[in-house]
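Researcher: We're teaching a course module on how sequence relates to structure. For the next exercise, students receive a sequence and then see the predicted structure as tokens, so they can try to spot secondary structure elements on their own. Here is the exercise chain.
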Amino acid sequence: MTQNFYAAPPTAAGTIQVIEELRKKYKRLKVFPIGRSVLGRQIPALCIGNPMGATLFVGATHGLEWITTLLLIRFCEILLKNLETGGKVSDIDVRKALNGRSLVIVPCLNPDGVEISLSGKPGAGRMGDSVENICKGDYLLWQANANGVDINHNFDAGWCVLQKMEIEAGVTGPSPTRYGGPHPNSEPETRAITTFCLTYQPRTLYSFHSQGEEIYYKYGEHTPTRSRLMAQILAASSGYVPSTPVELASHGGLKDWFIDKFHRPGFTIEVGLGKNPLPVEMFAKIYQEIEEMLIIATLL
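Model: And here is the predicted structure for the students to work with:
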């Protein structure tokens, strides 16, 4: 199942199935839910080691950026395999490297958004009519959750500033993209990941998006001084470019909230280059380009 999983866009059911297969195969892997989506879909976390103070990877905050789910689950699988065999990932002995360190991966924070992006109205279940009305039948560029809220605009970090910018841009209500919701943390997906962070206190956060081959590492006065060097190291290993988000991408994101709340390093990694949704045929190439960055990010 796992090899077939990487050959097609990841449905919610397929993602849960492959995670369960990995859990059964590898004793080192712990799997637990951090919450549920608007439509009740499970949001699982995959943990290697102690979840307290772990490095945290988060994928598929945006529905059409589902390729990040494939990339993170593949990395998890390769990490587990080499932990079991004593092998290396990008020439790094993972048993030695992960000694005393741990990793939590939330491969799909927005399962409803992914399903809507992939299958349209049927993916929205009981909210199909509402979603169809919001996007006028054009589901291809759906980023939001089932409420039409862009989760990466819904975090409590400059949210009021972002709301004014959204209104000025003509985004005043539920939308396929860029609507930050009626108030910060209004969405169950947002609350799921923030509650996880408040409970388990990740040491570093990486939020994976597509596309652009960029690394965002700054947010406000609480950005740690070491974040710039960390971004440069990640860039050197991947060929990506440290950058600064602008306009409607400059507030309200998971990385922004994490830095502002914990004063710890947080990053947004924009994988791949092209037009979203990046085709599944790009998966293998992107994974090869970023594997070293992923293992280094786990250790930084």
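Model: If you want an answer key for the exercise: The mean pLDDT is 96. The first strand starts at residue 29 and ends at 36.
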